[in-house]
Structures
1.
Amino acid sequence: MAQPDERISYFTSLCEQLYNPKSSDGSIQNILEQSFPIFSSSSTATSTMDDNIPFSFTIATPTDTASALRILLETSPSPYVQMFCFSRLKQLVLAQFTVFERETQIQLRTFLLEYAYLHPDLQPFVMIQLAGVFTLVTRLGWVDLEEYQNVYKDMDQFLKTSAEHRIVGLQILGVLIQDMNTSTIPKYAAKFRKAAAGLRDSQLLPIFNDVYTILNNLLVQNMHFDKPDQENRTKDATLNLILRCLSYDFAGTSTDEAGEDTGVVQVPLAWRNIYENEDFLSTFFKCYHSFNPPQATKVMECLVQLGSTRKALFSNEQARTQYIAKMMQGIQEIILSSMHMSDSDCFNHFCRLLQRFRVLLATPMETHMEWMTLIAQFTQSAFESCWTPCFYLLSFWSKIVQNMQYLQQLEPEVVVKLEEITAGLTGTFISNYVERVPIMIEDMLDDPLDDEESLLESLNMLGQIARCKYEKSCASLVDIFDPIANHYQELIHQANENVLKEAFPLFEARFAWLVYVMAVFIGNRPPYLNSDECDAADGTLITKVIQLLEINQSLQQHSSLFLSEKMDASIVYFFSQFRRSYLGEPNADAVYNKPNEVFGIEGQTDMLNLMMRKIITNLQCWGESVMVIKRSLELFDDLASGYSALRNIRKIESTQMIMQNHLSHEFSLFSSDRHRKSRVLYYQILCKILFADEDDCESEFNDFMKPFELRLHNLNALDSIEEFQQSQRALLDVFRDLRAFIQPIQTRRHYQMFLKWFYPTYMSVLKRGLEALSPHPEAVILLKFFGEFIHNKNQRLNLDVSSPQGVLLFRDASQIINTFGQRVVNLHITDENQKYPSKYKGIAACFNILARCLGGKYINFGVFWLYQDKAIEAAFNMMFQFMLNIPLDDMMHFPKLSRAYFMMLDEFSVEQMMFTSMMPNEAFLYILEGCELGFAVPNSWIRTNSCNVINNMCTFVIQENLKKTNKRAWFLNYLHPHVLDPLLSTLFGLILFDDNNDQWQLSRPLYTLVLLERDFASKYTNQVILQQLPERREFVTKVLNNLMEGSGWTLSTKDREKFSQQVSTLKRELNNNQIVLVAI
């Protein structure tokens, strides 16, 4: 036995190397984990100690590990040792707390407190780790151990000793309350909720009272400090603890603080006295004025929570009114003094305080108009000085406007005042950006228009504010727009192109901003609180946008230099908001008065036509902008969404022009590969429009397909592989477009039109094209088209009973798979980055084709077997070659490949696997090994498919064994125990040792495997029992016996469901008793 000091020195050295590594091989961590096992995994539970480790502790149980870590902590002052010991102790407690005897559990908690008390000078990161262990122990033992429930009493000795101990106590309490308030580990959810509720009901208020007293003493400087930095550290710890107390999840709902509009602090009634204390709020405002940032920022965060207090907390209306008055007074003093407003964090949290302070929901506004006017002045100043929109201030005023409709008894003068305020703020906010555009361009500052998502989040609230006095807000917007538009037209009329080009970026940014603002104004039209006056104001905005649109289009026709991506994106967004607010509205005639007067737009049809013309223009002009093309097609898709909308848009002249010229070379999205995704959306929309008329669309369909016919006829006329290769672009484009076109088709009637048009007339083009392009990656486009073509979604491909097309389609599928497969299986790629795009992507497409054929339910595979048609054998043989050509690691590494493979296997195992006697032994073992790996992947689809494959196979074997016939299925000879046992072990292990939510799926194949291997299942469960710690064996034996003995062990649905329920019961029992099984 080594001397203790040598052993401590050795482990101290290891800990220092762990946190200051010289290499990344992980050997140091492995040595430390072996030396201090936590008995929760096979690596620590079953592995023997490395012979190269010179020193060690004698450890046989989790208690021994805890004792060894304690010895190391008590004998080594190194912060690296302390960090490792506490982190390892936390893992040990989480895994094995229930194994500790009651006395050990109490001693562990006592040791942590004593260690913190004796070492108040610990490094901050070590103290946080210690507090984390203390919190975890407290949460786990709260329900069962009364000693754990005296947190306040335990920490009181820290708070009343020295200044350093006081800081330590505040830090530990801060971590405790924060961790108690966090989301829970699922297996301990019930216990942790009880602990959190217990802390809230019995400990949180005394803690808050004490820390509030400390804050008062800090404010009046009635505290003694031994070191210069202790005062600031005490302030930080105190304010952190107060903030965490106020942020506690009192209601137990884990409200997401990101949702600012729902953040009401549900303070318990027991806290009423302290909230109603006369000096309570004033103390925090005094601290804010007395402290400097960052402590002042923390005080403001506390005030945010205090300003979010629920109304029902107060004992009566007078108490609530007094609280609100003090909050308003404090806010007023901060605004008048501008205290710490130059600090960005303080400013932002102060704005957040205003946003969360729901005074207007609680009391009449008449008594607070002076205060509201002050807030308006502050907001006005903020809008004028801040470059970026202030989200919280906009949210504050948008809430006021929303609440005004619920407060019906407001005095007329109050309403008028609020309308003036909101209209003024709206104008200031808009003009602020317009005036700052030259500075932005000159100094190359970030443009808010570049982040449309964030911009619209703020502007939508501006639209809500504008609705308070909508006509005046619109007038302000027009007053800002008109001078800019007039100046713009003057430059155009001067015909000085150089001057206009130089000024164009300035106009572009201003117009784009103003059009976005107009869009949110219209988009916030309330559906049930509208008026002809407001609709007429919207009509004025629409007129301005159309005016700008026509000017820009005339400029763009003159020169492409005047194309503006930002401006066109804003106009598209404007049209999308108009569609949402007005299209389909029966009582919105007033909105068209002004457009009709100026441009002759009389109603929805004319407006639809205008929007479609803009979409067509964008498709023609914006070949260089993926964003504009994408947004334009998204607008087109929105216009074509819904039955009525589809019927309306089909009648539009511009839509008919697109339908008749959908492949026009004038559309720039066909000129570049960067618009591939947009082309897909384009033809999906056209498909919906084409088939919108259920009565008679066959003639329109034939007309629509004529451009495709021309392209396919040209390709069909090619005689050689070389000519197909030279026409590769045309070949890929036509099948990419056709795939997009047939994707939305849902009905059998419509799909039969396409099937009749395409098949078999143009099937030869696909086959010869695939032969020309294979095995190059471009061939995948053709494979994907065929995969969509034979996809029987929504039963659209259901064929008549006497139809031979199902057989013919599978023959073609077999030929296509073999044409591509024979070339790709011989393709050797060494570059890991090129494996998927160059080889595996095409194989995945072939797997999808097979899966859709096998699962489509429209192909009579019995015909192939009956007449010994070689197509089915050829398809399956190529499938086996695909599998054996892909290393299993690669199969599991690429998500799309593995998804397609397991989906195909799932369909294959339903029936066809049982009759495919030509499967190579290697392929069968490959399938089993792949399924075993598939059980453990996080992707639920792959896991489900893997479980289905094994379940189907085992179910078939059991059924065959019950028949007791001499004729046996081919793969029965391969399902030996050495094949099945690893599968059973893997499934059992995932259920017993893995924390996943797929017990039901895993239980299905496990049940059939246990039926086949009852003896091995019994041996396995015995091994699991023996592997557990002695204290747990009795309990584990009981739950495993309940699992294995409660079923009738037949293939009936009742017995299968019973076993699945028992699996769920087993997992629930383990979680409720906080037992983590040691894996074997």
2.
Amino acid sequence: MNQYGDRDSGPRTSMAGNAALYDTADEVLNLEEDDDPQIEGGNGQLRPTFMTQPQLRGSGRLSRSQRAKARLEERPAWEQPSTRGATPTPDLYVTNINQIHDKVRARDMSAMFNEGQSSEDWLSNHSIEHFKLTLKDLLTKGKVVKSDASVGGQGDVLPGRHLQFEASTVNEVEYKLYESIEMYHNRIKWLLQGSKKTFGMIKGKKVAVVLDSSDANCGFGRLNIFRDALLELIDEQLHNKEMLYLLSFGTHIDPLWSGPKFTNIGLLDQARQFVAHMKGMGGCNLLAALKKVLTVKGIDSIVLVLGNCPDQKSEHLIEFTEQMIVGRRVPLHCVAFDCNNHLTNMTLRKLAEMSGGRYHVYASSSEEQIYTGTDISLLLREIKIAQDVINKIQQMRQGMMGDALISILNEISLEVQKLPQSRFLPRPPNHAGGLNIEEPSFLPKASAEWLQQNGLKAKKLSLYQVLAPNAFAPIEQFIPIIRKSVRSQTHEKAMTQFEWHDGTIKNVHVDQAHLFDYQKQLGAMVKLYEKRIDWLSKDSRRLFGTVVEKKVVILVDLSLSNMSYLVHIQHSLRLLLEQQLTNKEAYNIIGFGSRAHCWRPCLQEPTEKNLQNTWKWILGLECNGSRNLMSAIRLALENEEDRKKSSVVEGIYLFTSGIPDQPSDVICSYMEEATVGVHTRLHTVLFNVDDYDANGAIPGRYADITETAECLRTLAHVSGGRFHWFRETGVIESDDIKYILGEIDKAVNYSQKCAMLVDSVKKRSNRNKAEETQRAQKEETKMLPMRPTSAKKAILGPPKHTELTLARLQIQDNKEREEKKAGVWRPTSGKKNLIPSDPYVSKQKTDNDKKNQKLCKSAKAKRAVFYTEQKNDVGLVFREYKDPLKKKKWKPINHPVIPEREEICSTKEWLKKYSLVKLRLDLSKLVSGPDCTHAKRHVKTLHKTVPAKYCTIFPSVNVKGLVKHLQLQSHELKEYEERLEPVLRRYLGRLQWLLGASRRTFGNVLEKRVCVLIDTSGSMVSHMDDLKKDLVALIWDQFRREKISFNLIRFSGDIEPWRSTTVEPTDTNCHDAVQWVNTFVPAGNSCTLEALMAAFEDKKIQAIYLLTDGKPDSSTARVLGEVAGVNTVRGVKIHTISFNCEDETANTFLRQLAAMSRGRYHRVFAGMDGDLAVHRLLEEGFKDTDFPVLPRFESDDLLLLSKEIEEARHYLAQSRSFRELFQNTPKPHEKDPVKHSRCQAQQVTPGKA
């Protein structure tokens, strides 16, 4: 050994360089003792020295290659190592940092799933059959015991088969089955995270993604959701693929690249830009997209995302794909993106099965559809297999399975049965370990208390606080000089009128810069509130809310119905002990079932030792009995030990899953009496569990989850506490979060009002500018030089009437009135003293005189007035007389014109302009004119009744019960039919429009400010999904398109308004309304009257649309009476909608409510398809006027229009029958040709008339 600790014999490790091997960097520069020059040290020993390269070359020593060769020759020969007696390497043997991470992950999560493994691949190593847990595997572990016979159920002797099992074997199989079920549930949860929930798990390394960019899939409201989902897919799954190829299709295809590209950062950015600029491209030409993508080379997997029904038939698509993939393996991963068309889903499923791929479904409105995908359905099938085996084990414990006797050896099973069932529940990692106690950095506060310091009002950010310095009340004073009251006015360019919080109107000066800064401050406050909501939704606060009191008692529900959830309860208490109890002064925990028992007899200080002992006590808790909440509350409040120490409980936190045994009013009364003079609050925490199994433990008092929540909410609010409700997916309801959300709504409302103020000032300014411009133009026009008066021609005025002339005119006027009443007009008779003059027209005429004047206008004679030689006498000359009895030329057929654009009005108003009567297409009126009537008349000169002559020549028709001769000719009737058919088609087009989109359910919304009341009672459960879709269509199709301000109110057992008043239909408001609608859950009764009263609170609404499926909870007479009392003065129209209601009493009530308020009644049937009948009429034409028959509509709008359609079809059939009469009626020459020729000869003879 040298002084550096190295051996002289040779190198430790090898390095490459210029064909020479060196030990280390030190050996390259340091010279060894036997080869290098020696320098004598102070003690006479030799030590190695450093030499430069020239010194090495000049020393005459061996070169590097020679020295390396010599060292290789000196190495010993290779010996084969022996592995005999070696121990295997442990799994957690640290060889590389990445390997140890992988092994820890594999150890902690046995169900962790490889990225890229489908459920089919994963189940090949994790299925029930792979673990040998099937019933067949279990039966092979039993021992067959020979028995001669067994007695059957009816006394028959049957050949017996007896199996015996070890109890440990059965218990082990059962435990593994429960573990497997939990593992499958964990994988399902993993598959429902991130982009895997929307698109499933993408398999393959070279992937082609085909995206549906049709107008239907990229429509308004869907495009942003689709883009966000695709961006999440790129970031989570597509970024680690080897090659990518993107293609979108609508009517035409649009590939991003010409072929597959290797994945890199730039390529992923291009894909994100491609998704961001995606828009609707017309139809859904899936066949063209498949033609393109199936010819692309170099891909091993195709992801097809479809959100709309394809243009081609399913059979053609499947047959084409099957022919294209013959001889190659290209699986199609088909994704149905929020598509409610079952035909599309069936097509995608068949494409996936045929190509060996997988099928996935994503539906935002129906979560259960996602479980029909290939990956999750395989896992659900395994869970069902495991459940079946567990059920068979239960049968085995009872001693029978089929016709075989089963006996389980009880040596071990008896001991196992003594243990509680909670011991067999799956537990999280380190469940029984010690607590990891965290010290909170600050004292938490309830949201109500926190908002007193951080709310908008506390921060002086209320809109009225900001506007107060610039708000002025309008003043009205009496001015003596002008002798009238004068009211203050607003400045046109900087002020506007604004409604204050107390309902008064104030003149506000609008400072736009100041309001812009105020909106920024509101945005910062909203971010702060969102951070608090996020904080409240994490860790133990998600389970218990915030524990704010200093001395608290936790009441834990340990009833028998919570046996399956005991581990969850214990884990929740663990988080509470670790995170929220360390900064308290004292605490205690009480568990209650039928009896209550506490951890310690009095409150204890939360030291680390006490907290650890508490956790050990919690681990030993068991579930039994019912929910005796009263005993637990009495144990907490009537504690003698606490009274001796003068320690008062400040907060009680009840952690339960159901309704207590005692009624809520009894508990509330006790709480009020027990806390007299003491400020003790009861906070209730409801953890939502699945409904109780009929075969399991049933609690003492049963109530559904809604009733349970209402009861616990009442208990908390009576004592001034808070209510918290959660489940595994997250918080359902929390008073703390509700306060923060209310403050956020205030901030948003204030911001919108700021924008409204600024817009109102801008509009007024622009309007004033336009008025000033018009005023200036008028002044310029007035300043033009006027034409001189001398340039105008002199116009002679009418002669002035004398008193005598006025008297003549008055007499003339009276005579003309009498003649008009007689029906014949006569000129005045000339007299010596009275000269006829131009009649005087009286200014005061009745409406009938004006109508008669219009009718007789053509019958008046033309006259001329002149002066005579005798002073002011006037003469009159009649130039032309007209026959007042002369008829106008009759035009039988009108050419109607109805605009193609649909008008937003009711059918009643629409038919006032475009009915058959208004269009002059009423066949009864056209036929029933002043024509000859087929009747017998009495002739006085002949003293007998004579029938009409030539009656057989003219066709006779029945017009409204009167037989008349038809005057219309065949070609005129044909022309009438040609005019009537387009009108009938237009009627059908409007009927089809009324049956389309949201108008099918809600009718036509006419007003500009409406409130929609939606019934979400329990009876709506079967139609709730359809109602949500119709509401979304109503918001976008009518409210947004027609710019209708709206509000929504949900009512069942209670009412829940979406907004406090009507809002403008902006994109943000519409999106918020759609999200709110999707949260509807049908439950409870129908408080219709309360919903109507809540709608009437908005003073600006013009109409209410009430949708319900039954009668209200209260009396219908009471509802009608109270609504009439409120609505008599306001006159708000109430339009009622009967949604799939077959109760005639309820429908009668809705009709009366609509008629009372001058509204419209609309009825929706689930099975009625009027659109199909209309479509058949438009396609097949009107050859058959009786078929197809339109369904019987009961809605006001549809009923009036369908009656007009039926009347038009009746006129069409009647006109055709009239034309057939001309063919059946013989002509005169056909009936008597000899007489007809004689008549013609007489007409030709001269002198005959």
